[in-house]
Design a protein that fits this description.
The structure holds two protein chains of two kinds.
Chain A lengths: L10 E3 L1 E9 L4 H15 L2 E7 L14 E9 L10 E6 L2 H7 L3 E10 L5 H6 L16 E5 L1 H9 L7 H6 L1 H12 L5 H10 L4 H20 L7 E3 L8 E6 H16 L3 E5 L6 H8 L7 E4 L3 H13 L3 E6 L1 H16 L5 E6 L16 H6 L8 E4 L6 H15 L3 E6 H5 L1 E5 L13 E2 L20 E2 L9 E3 L14 H16 L10 E2 L4 E8 L3 H13 L5 E6 L1 E3 L5 H6 L1 E8 L4 H9 L5 E5 L8 H12 L1
Parallel strand pairs in A: 1-8, 2-5, 5-6, 6-7, 10-11, 10-12, 12-13, 13-15, 14-15, 17-18, 21-22, 21-24, 24-25
Antiparallel strand pairs in A: 2-4, 3-4, 9-16, 14-23, 20-22
Helix pairs in contact in A: 1-6, 4-8, 6-8, 7-8, 9-10, 9-14, 11-12, 17-20
Chain B lengths: L27 H11 L10 E5 L14 E4 L5 H11 L4 E7 H7 L1 H10 L4 E6 L34 H7 L4 E6 L3 H13 L4 E6 L11 H4 L4 H4 E4 L6 E2 L5 E6 L2 E6 L21 H8 L4 E8 L5 H15 L5 H5 L4 E3 L1
Parallel strand pairs in B: 1-2, 1-3, 3-4, 4-6, 5-6, 7-11
Antiparallel strand pairs in B: 5-11, 8-9, 9-10
Helix pairs in contact in B: 1-6, 3-4
The chains are: A alpha/beta, B alpha/beta.
């Protein structure tokens, strides 16, 4: 074990990465969330990421039952939850075993020694106790008998069962970490008061344990020094911590309010998209209508029905669900109806890795339908901008009368970060295509000259009775048509309509360098990783590396080729085998698209990216 | 729905300009005309009527109605219609489907829409065959039926739509022969008045691929003797001579003759369509002699949209949020 000098003055750090791990029933998500919320209120920039098993309650103490929550806080700009951790809090041997590799050598591990029993060590497949066999000598290990200290602290409080007592030990750990990083316990105590409103004994117990942990850390000599992380320099404004999925849900709420349309969600539960359903179903007070459907297909088709009846309709899913929705999405596309499909990507194929992140549904989103069936595809790239791209998806579908697929992924959807709150007042206008009066010679497929969008006549409007359907329609009168030339015309105009969306989306921007030796390209949820890696290498003196991150996939931004031309080498980084690289190759001739791919269900790490960048500019 | 129409409609108001393309002699023509005659009687404005269909011969139906309509994808019409109705409960929403569309590819949506009791009217064109794909057996085809996909005879036992529907908690089930337009029109009017999911099974003859499959019950010459047309509150009497009736003998329905073995009309079962307990309704659905037609079950219950609406009102009354700003700035926010 490394011994450290004692110092009375708190050490000042720019950023710190902490990971809380334990059994899936140990309350690690709650512990992590409390720490990150408190830090955000203190003014730190933060990014978090939960990592939990697919099993709800895996056998206690098992390696696959470990649940973790990582938080990255800083006085500097934080763009990812971070890779290697400065502090690991391990509530049991399995948590230690599965996470030790992520701890920076020389850094701190706090363990609950009470959990290091022979039985638990066996379950974690340890042959000897790592606390005793010297295997942790490269780390600063802080051994605390958290379970017994928690029991001791609570012996005076009446009305608590054994389970509630043991379960509150996570608050002991949190109390310790609060003291280590100079945080107040106030926010968490307020949280107890709301959460356990009807159970005063639990408010008392949790507060007691939290404070005991806090004072314990202060008192014992095992923790020699404390750290502070100063508030970050962030744009002034009102902030809140938001999870990607919540931000997505709120983006749609904002779009519904701005457009004056009712929001309708048809959805079938699927990890990691269900939280959007959970969030929207709460908001009946805004007139949100939701249907938890019998399957993925009913989710999207109910949404299509609601759209036909004039709602802003969406369906939410993850990869396997998008596969099931394919035929219905084709219907929405041919009847030219507004519809947003949110795909929170996860590891595939098939059931794949439900709780892990991946970007492997890109080609499915672009091409996963029968026939020529282009739709708009956009991707959010941070937990907070899920709000903006949900709003944008709604705006584009309403204004262009064609379905939009919004891609998110498990990493940004479950991760959280500060969000500078936006109000509907500041969001761009949404112009709908609804017609309320019959015009002479009105036809279903009359189009706007600029966007090629058709009108949106809504049942209940006199004189606009009409039929739509999945059969090809006559370009003029909207009746069923098998005429060969008409089919070709309609196929082309549906594609042209998507292409023209280019005129309504922003240009692609480059960061760090507008031209130079290497252009790093990414799309969607990898933005934080790529941004921090390019920033990192830029600070090391590599000033000739630029980053171009895509949020608009179909259509691509107009200036894409121009950006590509400004760099000697292009590296496309993706969490798949190279799907976006394929798209770029198809669209832009004469460029060599180098690839950096990772298919491990994990986000990019900073060092693997910077190493690759250096290789290419050396 | 607006219950008083602003103007008097005739069936022509509901006929679109599209040429009807079903095979000559198909019962679909009868159903189409029965519907066009029923709609002026239901007191709903034309612009409030929506037809949603799936795929199959029957599903061309919306193109021939001059109302709002969607010819959608195979099996999904009940889910689409659910979305339409939830988005705008003022609309009169009709689902047009067939035996393959509703009970094979769309089986899941079919049972769930009935369970939820959304206020929709589902017209199920049952011809016990796949017509549009040119003659394969369907989930209602009888065992032994020789078709293109069962040249040695169908080996799959059939569903009975009514049994399946009542098992899935259908509150309204009616059956009608495809060659009795008057009864059909009346049932269409009645099902629109019913609040909740109505399922109407039409025994629809396909003259091309399964001609005569219902003849033993629907042929003009035999139908009075082979069909019992039930009406709520009336005794179960049938037969050309109006001398046959139904009694309950232990746990079975039994056909009796009035005046024989001391049976009087008072001994016959009186039809109670509104009873919540579906036991007797199921027995009537299963009966093959006589085949029971008319409204077999019509039990009033809360609809999905009523439940949702009540919940929304309750949440709205208690909520402190009226605009999204109220939500976005609530709770743990902080200034930088």
């Amino acid at each position: 074990m490394i011994t450290t000098e004692t110092s009375t003055k708190p050490e000042v750090l720019e950023a710190v990465i902490i990971r809380f791990v334990g059994d899936s029933g140990d309350g690690m998500q709650l512990t992590g969330t409390q720490f990150s919320d408190t830090s955000a209120m203190f003014g730190n920039d933060i990014a978090t990421f939960p990592n939990y098993p697919a099993e709800i309650r895996a056998p206690q103490g098992s390696l696959y039952g470990v649940s973790g929550f990582q938080v990255h806080i800083g006085s500097v700009e934080i763009s990812t939850p971070g890779d290697e951790v400065d502090l690991l809090v391990a509530m049991n041997p399995a948590g230690l075993k599965t996470n030790l590799h992520a701890v920076k050598p020389g850094h701190t591990i706090i363990v609950d020694t009470d959990a290091f029993t022979r039985k638990n060590l066996e379950k974690a497949q340890y042959e000897s106790n790592p606390l005793e066999d010297g295997s942790l000598e490269n780390y600063r290990v802080i051994e605390v008998a958290m379970t017994s200290l928690t029991k001791e602290a609570l012996k005076e409080i009446k009305g608590l069962d054994n389970k509630s007592i043991t379960r509150s030990k996570n608050m002991f750990a949190l109390g310790m970490v609060y003291w280590m990083y100079d945080r107040s316990t106030d926010h968490t105590i307020e949280f107890f008061k709301t959460k356990f409103k009807s159970k005063p004994e639990l408010i008392e117990a949790n507060t007691k344990v939290l404070n005991t942990g806090f004072y314990f850390a202060e008192t014992i000599e095992l923790i020699p020094n404390s750290y502070t992380i100063a508030p970050a320099k962030m744009a002034p404004g009102t902030y809140r911590i938001i999870m990607g999925n919540t931000a997505t849900a709120w983006g749609f709420l904002a779009a519904a309010e701005k457009s004056g349309l009712n929001l309708f969600l048809g959805s079938y539960p699927i990890t990691p998209a269900s939280d959007i359903l959970h969030e929207l179903v709460k908001h009946k007070h805004f007139g949100v209508k939701t249907l938890q459907a019998e399957d993925e297909i009913a989710g999207i088709t109910a949404a299509i029905g609601a759209s036909f009846a004039g709602s802003l309709a969406l369906t939410t899913t993850s990869g396997p669900g998008l596969a099931l929705k394919g035929e219905a999405l084709g219907l929405a596309m041919i009847i030219e109806m507004p519809l947003v499909v949110v795909n929170v990507q996860r590891g595939g194929p098939s059931t794949g890795l439900p709780t892990k992140t991946e970007q492997s549904d890109l080609l499915q989103a672009l091409y996963g339908r029968n026939g020529e069936s282009p739709v708009i595809v956009i991707a959010a790239s941070t937990p907070a901008n899920c709000f903006d791209f949900a709003y944008e998806a709604a705006k584009l579908t309403i204004e262009h009368m064609t379905p939009v697929i919004l891609l998110s992924d498990g990493y940004i959807a479950s991760g959280s970060a500060p969000w500078k709150i936006k109000t509907v007042r500041d969001m761009p206008e949404i112009k709908n295509n609804i017609i309320t009066e019959p015009k002479e010679n009105w036809h279903t497929y009359d189009r706007d000259e600029e966007t090629l969008a058709r009108k949106w006549p809504i049942p209940g409007t006199q004189g606009l009775e009409h039929r739509v359907g999945g059969l090809e329609k006559d370009r003029v009168n909207g009746n069923v048509s098998y005429i060969p030339e008409n089919h070709e015309y309609m196929t082309k105009i549906r594609a042209e309509k998507i292409k023209r969306v280019q005129n309504y989306i922003p240009d692609l921007e480059t960061e760090f360098a507008d031209s130079g030796d290497l252009l790093v390209i990414g799309w969607g949820g990898t933005y934080g990783s790529l941004y921090s890696a390019v920033k990192h290498i830029n600070e090391e003196g590599y000033k000739n590396i630029g980053l171009a991150h895509f949020n608009y996939i179909n259509p691509l931004p107009k200036n894409t080729e121009e950006v590509l031309k400004s760099f000697k080498k292009i590296l496309v980084c993706e969490l798949n085998t190279g799907q976006f690289a394929k798209v770029l190759k198809m669209n832009f001739n004469g460029f060599e698209f180098l690839q950096f791919n990772k298919i491990q269900g994990l986000p990019f790490g900073n060092s693997e990216l910077t190493e690759k960048f250096k290789q290419l500019v050396r | 729905m607006e219950t008083t129409a602003t103007k008097e409609y005739t069936y022509k108001d509901f006929s679109s300009d599209q040429e009807v393309r079903w095979c000559p002699g198909c019962d679909d023509y009868v159903i189409l005309r029965a519907m066009q005659k029923a709609l002026p009687e239901i007191g709903v404005k034309k612009e409030d009527v929506v037809f949603i269909s799936g795929i199959g011969c029957s599903s061309r139906f919306p193109y021939y109605m001059d109302t709002y309509g969607m010819h959608s994808i195979h099996g999904r019409a009940p889910a689409i219609a659910t979305g339409v109705k939830l988005a705008n409960p003022n609309l009169s929403v009709w689902v047009i489907t067939g035996d393959g569309d509703s009970m094979a590819i769309g089986g899941n949506h079919f049972i769930h829409v009935l369970r939820r009791n959304v206020d929709l009217n589902i017209i199920l064109f049952n011809n016990e065959i796949y017509g549009l794909t040119k003659g394969q057996f369907s989930p209602t085809s009888t065992v032994g039926l020789k078709t293109k996909s069962s040249p040695y005879g169908n080996t799959q036992p059939p569903f009975s739509p009514g049994e399946l529907a009542i098992g899935a908690q259908a509150r309204f089930f009616a059956r009608v022969g495809g060659n009795t337009p008057k009864e059909m029109t009346q049932i269409f009017i009645d099902c629109q008045k019913f609040k909740g999911t109505s399922l109407i099974e039409v025994l629809q003859n396909c003259p091309i691929f399964n001609d005569g499959c219902f003849d033993e019950f629907t042929d003009k010459k035999v139908r009075e003797d082979k069909q019992l047309h039930v009406e709520h509150g009336k005794p179960m009497i049938f037969g050309k001579e109006r001398d046959k009736g139904i009694v309950l003998n232990r746990l079975k329905l039994e056909v009796v003759t009035i005046g024989e073995n001391g049976i009087e009309q008072e001994d016959l079962l009186v039809h109670d369509a509104k009873e919540e307990d579906p036991t007797l309704h199921q027995m009537l659905v299963r009966l093959r002699y006589p085949l029971v037609t008319g409204i077999i079950r019509s039990f009033d219950d809360v609809t999905l949209e009523e439940r949702k609406d009540a919940q929304t009102k309750e949440v709205k009354a208690k909520s402190k949020f009226s605009k999204t700003d109220d939500l976005f700035f609530a709770g743990d926010v902080y200034e930088v």
